[in-house]
Amino acid sequence: MPNIKQLTQHQLKSPPSSIPVKHSSTARQPDKAPRIFRMKDLVECTGLSRATIYTLMSTDPTFARKIRLTARTIGFYAHEVEAWLASRAQMRDAA
Fold first, then answer.
1. What average pLDDT does the segment 46-63 reach?
2. Which stretches of sequence are listed as region Disordered (predicted)?
3. Per DSSP, which regions of the chain are E strands?
4. Rounded to an integer, what distance in angstroms lies between the CA atom of residue 82 and that of residue 84?
5. Pick from 26, 57, 63, 65: CA 20 to 30 A from residue 43's CA?
6. 78, 69, 66: which is closest to 34 by C-alpha?
7. CATH architecture for segment(s) 30-94
8. CA angle 58, 56, 89 (to 5 degrees)
């Protein structure tokens, strides 16, 4: 077995082949940690513009509520955004 100084950068970053590696997004986050969407994520997830999202925040009581992360940063719980999108899909299916 080579010592640590003899290993290349690639070998240091790669796990040994005997260790199974998960390559899903859930592998990076603990199960109990809530996912937070920042504005950029929300725009990407919904396909809506920032202006439309700000309008929905002030006019639609069913839209996901913002979370103040810092003095100048807000986020949204992913499960609330997904629930809002699901409710919009149900309204479409009911019509």
1. 96
2. 1-31
3. 36-37, 66-70, 73-77
4. 5
5. 26
6. 78
7. Orthogonal Bundle (1.10)
8. 145
